[in-house]
Design goal:
Layout (H helix, E strand, L loop, with lengths): L2 E3 L5 E3 L4 E2 H8 L1 H6 E6 L2 E4 L3 E2 L3 E7 L3 H22 L4 E2 L4 E2 L2 E7 L6 H16 L5 E6 H10 L3 H8 L6 E7 L2 E4 L13 E11 L8 E10 L2 H15 L3 H7 L3 E3 L7 E3 L1 H20 L3 E2 L5 E3 H7 L1 H5 L5 E4 L2 E5 L4 H8 L4 E2 L5 E10 L15 E11 L4 H18 L6 E5 L9 H17 L4 E4 L9 E7 L5 E10 L12 E2 L5 E2 L2 E10 H12 L12 E5 L5 H13 L4 E4 L5 H10 L4 E5 L1 H6 L2 E5 L3 E6 L1 H13 L11
Parallel strand pairs: 1-7, 18-23, 22-29, 25-26, 32-33, 32-34
Antiparallel strand pairs: 1-2, 3-6, 4-5, 4-7, 8-10, 9-10, 10-15, 11-12, 12-13, 14-15, 16-17, 19-21, 20-21, 23-24, 24-31, 25-27, 27-28, 28-31, 29-30, 34-35, 35-36
Helix pairs in contact: 3-4, 5-6, 8-15, 13-14
The protein binds one RNA strand of 76 nucleotides through strand 14, strand 15, helix 8, helix 11 and strand 28.
RNA sequence: GCCGAAAUAGCACAAUUGGUAGUGCAACUGAUUUGUAAUCAGUAGGUUGUAGGUUCAAGUCCUAUUUUCGGCACCA
């Protein structure tokens, strides 16, 4: 006699075990029709699952987040169902839910092309429209093995083999198609109304590059056709922000076959880059760093000693001359230790903070290159802080503070924090790693940051905190990082020392930190974040002066000269074109201010100010305009909502 | 690196079953002297990523290669 408590607190009593679906029918036919699954005492279950004891039950419909999730998961099954009809020899691996959608990994001799997706999608929708019922059968282990053996589903068998403790498995019957899953799933495929298979790509079985590469079919699905439409439109809009497209359109940088993964910065891109770099340089000065420059190429022996050669040589560019081997630096730390070691340090000198806008080269695998986000040559706003163990917390905290104030100035407020611990390939003893990890995590906790753990993702010399930002389509990129290193300074590595108050030699702890990370990547993120509509302090060209006719050109040039003298980045457009044409071009170039100058302005000694977004701020003289511009520049990127559109 | 796809004028794109490589913008020349998102006319621009091959004939088919794109693995 189960008593079921509903979320509103009301209770219903049943004479026998009752399923979620039966409960929904008891409440009303409409609800039953909308029922996807249930949450019984907090656990998600299929709508068909019987419950014989007292419980709290929530009915899940497509309107619930869980309902949408379940529907997407069932979409993966539907994909399997359709795919096996079209490609009977395909073997199904795994088909989980991801953000906005789902994928299924399959193994097939036949390569599925993007064109084939439309065909599969069509079959999926046809199958969904038959409104067939999904039947779940809890199946004993031996029988499940028998079923998948008969069906030649090798990957399902491997999954079963990897769960030796399980005695039974949930098999979902989609007409003739059978999939194995914990569930829950839709009771009926007609809930699926809006889906699209988006792309197909390779993916290693179980994410292991030593295993076979499967074909992964990605799809998205929504509760309504409008939801899908909105999503596709949003993606289309997001792709317009792509820094590779905008970089070309705005004349910021380009890439060339002669140097794959290395940017050619054009003058406007260079300006943007320098504004970012100089901003950071100012922060360094305020935070008591000393800036240095170290060689790009250093003797291979030094890299062997530092541990880089052993752990990192596959990613290093090398060169050789006069029978001596060199490597191009992939990191700045060894160079900074050379500078640290140039004189004997006292404990009174610590912490020593050595910073460099360090150009590093890393021979990244060809398949990883991605615009400015993943390159082979990039400049880190790098620094190494040499300190005592007692100083770690204060120094790490200062770095965290610098990350947050910097990101706020650039207009970012959505920052993901990750804490990465010891990787398989590493230097240093476990005792040292214990020390480093706990020191870093403790600071992270004290800073009250919301972070997630990435076990095994640390640097080879120490654990790290990562600060990640998202690109236009939601891909996450690591930018800032703080890494704790007890190893590199040891005698057997690069042997950095200081004399302690006990008059003995000690090895300092080294904190590796970058705030922006790579200047290249950070600029790429900035381009996408602002869609090229940079706040005035960052805009490569801040002001364009447009003359109406040739007779106005002299005044324009004088006015432009005055603005330049005041430190603004100014262009004059004196071309023999209509002012509408000029405005269109500079609007497309996302210039924050366009100054229009004709007879009226010259007569009054003013300029007519058109702000980005088409707002006419009226005519003003040089002093008023300077005040306006200075005020705008001083805001940096902090007030995101006030960026002109 | 792995799987799949793509590469045509400075840029964005066309080019039937293999049959004379085009259009728009940009560039250049001329006219126009212009008031807040495109003035008009004309001219020029290409070994179709590179290297081979098949064919009477290749942008199109085949092979190799480079780069790019989407993922995967990697990411100090």
């Amino acid at each position: 006699m189960p008593v079921i408590t509903l979320p509103d607190g009301s209770k219903r009593e049943f004479s026998a075990a009752v399923s979620v679906m039966e409960l929904a029918q008891d409440i009303g036919a409409g609800l039953a029709k909308a029922t996807i699954a249930g949450r019984v005492d907090g656990n998600l279950v299929d709508a068909s699952e019987k419950n014989s004891v007292d419980a709290t039950v929530q009915i899940i419909t497509i309107k619930d987040e869980d309902g949408l999730h379940i529907m997407r998961h069932s979409c993966a099954h539907l994909l399997g169902h359709a795919l096996k009809q079209l490609y009977p020899d395909a073997k199904m691996a795994i088909g989980p839910v991801i953000d906005n959608g789902f994928y299924y990994d399959i193994d097939s001799e036949i390569a599925i092309s993007e064109e084939d997706l439309a065909k599969i999608e069509k079959r999926m929708l046809e199958l969904a429209q038959t409104k067939y019922q999904v039947v779940k059968k809890i199946t004993p282990r031996a029988e499940a093995i028998q079923i998948f053996t008969a069906r030649k589903e090798d990957y399902k068998l491997e999954l079963i083999a990897d769960m030796p403790a399980e005695t039974e498995f949930g098999l979902y019957y989609h007409q003739e198609y059978i999939d194995m899953c914990r569930g829950p799933h839709l009771p009926n495929m007609s809930f699926i109304k809006a889906l699209k298979l988006t792309h197909v790509a390779g993916a290693y079985w179980r994410g292991d590059c030593s295993k076979k590469m499967l074909q992964r079919i990605y799809g998205v699905s929504f509760a309504s056709k409008q939801g899908l439409k909105d999503y596709l439109l949003m993606m289309e809009e997001a792709e317009k922000r792509d820094h590779r497209k905008l970089g070309k359109l705005l004349g910021l940088y380009h890439f060339d076959e002669v140097a794959p993964g290395m940017a050619f910065w054009h003058t406007k891109g260079t300006t943007l880059y320098q504004v970012v770099e100089n901003y950071m340089r100012e922060q360094l000065a305020q935070s008591d760093y000393e800036e240095v420059r170290t060689p790009l190429v250093m003797d291979r022996a030094m890299w062997e000693k530092s541990g880089h050669w052993d752990k990192f040589k596959d990613n290093m560019f090398t060169t050789e001359t006069e029978n001596r081997d060199y490597a191009v630096k992939p990191m700045n730390c060894p160079g900074h230790i050379q500078i640290y070691n140039q004189h004997l340090r006292s404990y009174r000198d610590l912490p020593v903070r050595i910073a460099e806008f360090g150009l590093v080269h890393r021979n990244e695998p060809s398949g990883t290159l991605h615009g400015l986000m993943r390159v082979r040559a990039f400049t880190q706003d790098d620094a190494h802080i040499f300190c005592t163990q007692a100083q770690i917390k204060t120094e790490v905290q200062a770095c965290i503070d610098l990350v947050y104030s910097t990101y706020a100035d650039f207009g970012f407020d959505n920052i993901q924090v990750k804490f990465s611990t010891r990787p398989k390939v590493r230097v240093g003893s476990d005792a040292v790693w214990d020390l480093a990890e706990s020191a870093l995590e403790e600071t992270l906790k004290d800073a009250k940051l919301d972070y997630s753990l990435l076990p095994g993702e640390g640097a080879f010399y120490g654990p790290k905190i990562e600060f990640q930002l998202k690109d236009c389509i939601g891909r996450v990129w690591q930018c800032g990082t703080i890494q704790l290193d007890f190893s590199m300074t040891q005698a057997e590595r690069l042997n950095a020392v200081y004399i302690g108050s006990d008059n003995e030699k000690h090895h300092p702890v080294m904190i590796h930190r970058a705030i922006l990370g790579s200047l290249e990547r950070f600029v790429g993120i900035l381009v996408e974040h602002y869609e090229g509509k940079f706040p005035t302090w960052l805009a490569p060209t801040q002001i364009v002066l447009a003359s109406i006719a040739g007779v106005h050109n002299e005044f324009v040039q004088q006015f432009a000269k005055k603005l330049k003298k005041s430190g603004f980045r100014v262009e004059s457009d004196l071309r023999n074109e209509k002012v509408g044409f000029k405005i269109r071009e500079h609007t497309l170039q996302r210039v924050p201010y366009i100054l229009v100058i004709g007879d009226q302005e010259i007569e009054n000694g003013t300029v007519n100010v058109r702000a980005r977004g088409g707002v006419n701020l009226g005519s003003m003289n040089f002093e008023d305009l300077s005040r306006l511009l200075l005020n705008d520049v001083s805001k940096l990127g902090r007030v995101v909502t006030q960026v002109p559109v």
